[in-house]
Design goal:
Elements: E1 2-6, E2 9-14, E3 17-21, H1 24-27, E4 33-36, E5 42-45, E6 51-55, E7 58-61, E8 70-76, E9 79-84, E10 89-93, E11 99-102, E12 113-118, E13 124-128, E14 133-136, E15 142-144, E16 155-160, E17 166-170, E18 174-179, E19 182-186, E20 197-202, E21 208-212, E22 217-221, E23 224-228, E24 239-244, E25 250-254, E26 257-261, E27 268-271
Antiparallel strand pairs: 1-2, 2-3, 4-5, 5-6, 6-7, 8-9, 9-10, 10-11, 12-13, 13-14, 14-15, 16-17, 17-18, 18-19, 20-21, 21-22, 22-23, 24-25, 25-26, 26-27
């Protein structure tokens, strides 16, 4: 089962069936992200209407979060970490409805936060627009910026590496790996091109998938690269997100539909409005 956000609402793909949530409550909210908590709830962050909860064929707006522009949701037990535009990072407990704000008073340098990521050690990484990346393991927040090796203060994507490190892409068209307290750049000397990287995933086979803005999808493995482009591979060269399902399939969300790449890379199936697999 796959949940998808798009400019008309939210869709659920279950095998050959697709269910669309397109009613007036969600249609004009421009959903930005969607995720599932361990207890099974589906949550979507929107542009200006906060967070919606989906259950069955119904949805509900979380009134306490109305007005927020939520760019990313990280589920963590009974908590949702909400990365927002203008309001920093908020923790929302969906059982008690308690809200905890992580803002500039906690050494967060900006209220514009793109995403939050939890590493294998239990630390939280907050990617910001203009303030670099922050590690929030315990107060105070530790900041990484241009001044201490980050190479770019605008963070576009974060992803776990198989060696317990962290992949980071920045607005300076840089791909870096953080490990043992240092950032290591991956550039042309490793066949990584200088591109605007908007999505990252290292899959279960230790292959790094790199989603770009305008240059398609790049696969990086053992120092070699392969590109997937608009046409037979992707609906668009503007990649928004990349995930791996339990069967090892790679799902690539673009500005014009979704592509499913099989684990052995031999089959690609597209979902879009033309083949009516998406609304």
């Amino acid at each position: 089962m796959l949940w998808v956000t798009h400019n008309k609402g939210v869709s659920k793909i279950d095998g050959t069936n697709t269910i669309h949530f397109l009613n007036d409550l969600i249609r004009d909210t421009y959903p930005q992200c969607i995720t599932q908590s361990k207890s099974g709830e589906i949550w979507s962050g929107t542009y200006g209407k906060g967070v919606f909860k989906f259950f069955g064929k119904k949805l509900k707006q979380i009134e306490r979060l109305d007005g927020l522009i939520v760019l990313n949701i990280l589920p963590d037990g009974d908590w949702l970490w909400l990365s927002t535009l203008k309001n920093g990072v908020l923790k929302y407990n969906f059982k008690t409805e308690k809200i905890v704000k992580i803002q500039q008073s906690d050494n967060l340098p900006t209220k514009n936060c793109r995403l939050t990521f939890k590493d294998s050690w239990g630390g939280y990484w907050i990617g910001t627009s203009g303030g670099g990346v922050m590690k929030y393991a315990q107060a105070p927040i530790k900041s990484y910026t241009n001044e201490n090796g980050l190479q770019g203060n605008y963070i576009y994507a974060l992803a776990a590496s198989s060696d317990s490190g962290l992949w980071v892409s920045t607005g300076s068209k840089k791909l870096l790996k953080y490990k043992n307290g240092l950032f290591e750049a991956y550039g042309v000397e490793r066949n990584i091109y200088s591109l605007k990287i908007k999505a990252l995933l290292e899959d279960s086979r230790k292959r790094l998938w790199i989603g770009t803005e305008g240059s398609g999808l790049m696969l990086y493995k053992d120092g070699k690269t392969k590109f997937y482009k608009s046409g037979k591979d992707l609906g668009s060269n503007f990649v928004k997100d990349i995930i791996e399902d339990k069967k090892g399939n790679i799902w690539v969300a673009t500005s014009n539909g979704i592509s499913k790449i099989s684990p052995n890379l031999k089959k690609i199936k597209q979902y879009n409005t033309k083949n009516k697999r998406l609304h």
